[in-house]
Input
Amino acid sequence: MVEHGRKMINLNADVAIIGGGPAGLAAAISAHENGAKNVIVLDRNSWLGGILPQCIHDGFGVEETGTSMTGPEYAEMYIKAARKKGINFMNETMVLQFDKNRKIIAVNKKGLHEIKAKSIVLAMGCREKTRWNIMIPGDRPSGIYTAGVAQAFINLYNIMVGKNVVILGSGDVGLIMARRLKFEGANVLGVVEILPYASGLPRNVVQCLDDYDIPLYLNHTVTYVKGKERLESVTIAQVDEKMNIIPGTEREIKCDTLLLSLGLIPENELSKNVKIELDDLTGGPIINQSFETSLSGVFACGNCLQVYDTVDTLSMDAKVAGENAAKKSVKQNKFINVKAGKGIRYVVPQRINEPGKIHFTLRVEKPCESPTLHVISDGIELLKKKLPWANPANTVEFDIDISAEVVKYKDLEVILDD
Amino acid sequence: MTDEKKITCIVCPIGCKILVKIDGKHFELVDGNKCKRGIDYAISEALDPRRMLTSSVLVKNGEWPLVSVKSSKPVPKNKIVSVLNEIKKASVNAPVKSGQVVLNNVADTKIDIVATKSIKK
Output
């Protein structure tokens, strides 16, 4: 193929990884350790580590390594390890598409590249929900940011976003940013959460809000945004248990900045383009126990698969995905489904096509004390596990030995009894 | 006088609710921790609360305008504001190496402020 008189640059890879964030790095290292000699990581940014360099707070790596690191330190640990192995990084390179035969088209300053890969690992990460995902009525002034964008402005580019700040949504990024803004001298007027509980981790509620007396308004939401050019005020109101606004509870708060921490959406434009089956509940590709998607030879890991609580579990799973990408893919023709039943928001993997010890990750619907987890297949209980507690902010993980017999059955169902 | 306090552990993502009894300097763990690290945290939180501090420092002539930093040890809670004020006044010349001490004995705490990222010129 010829573009503007220039030839397509042709490359081959044993494993090509789309995204050089924590998932892509972990998958690359693991693929290399498991025999893939030619591993290429493609990333749009000029740096590696994805979002980690802007996550300057600590708490990374506690579960994985036993020590608490900051985001940049955690990233550096993986980047060093990957460089040592001679993994090929292509930064400032944008993947435009890939096809069913795992031929990737990517572009950078040198031109168009065609990369033929034996396997592909998807590690594109996720995006933040915006004002338009929840349709907040009102004006369209400046001063409204997603929490992660504000984090990049402040921590990477030294640009302060505002003086008097309201944060909508109590996801971890929102909580971390409440403290960060306070440190930078802003007046943080409160965090507004529509649910009756915080969506972020308990430790972040304590060390980001409670420590600095930042109010958390549970069962509240923003009902109106006002401002001609710059944001002038937001109106917040209380909601009932059905999340309907309770009339008469509206209150106007004068502020110049609104941060949105509304949750994250797995990024899968490339997956959709090649018709990889997605799970409506996770927003990521449907995978089997090997992290292989519905397209043979294409694997998924990291936040484009499911939004993880911590980078630790994300990396550990991404290593398994990388390992499987280095090995031959499993034939996909026969499989059983894993269903999220009562009390469960989602389960990963969604499919099983081989017996063995299988690691599951799930998220529950709502917080509860000492619930019981059941895994059932064709009327037979494979697992019954009492949990001390369950919270949608913390994923639940467990392993089950799945026999060849079970893989022949119809489906697996996971339910939570509270 | 004995004080009962419910402390949310911040060591790991679980966030155990640990119940403690404090009587002046005397401390008694009642219930709630799932691991040993929780005991250490609860003792510290009840008697001498401290936090790891992370922020950023201005970089001169670097490829990025800021370098991320952390405290070498957890900072006593009542010293956080004075430590932050010192961090705000500081600047460092590129190149910066991750692990490099940016501020020594910050605000007389015997704690250093250390770069957590390398910044090229």
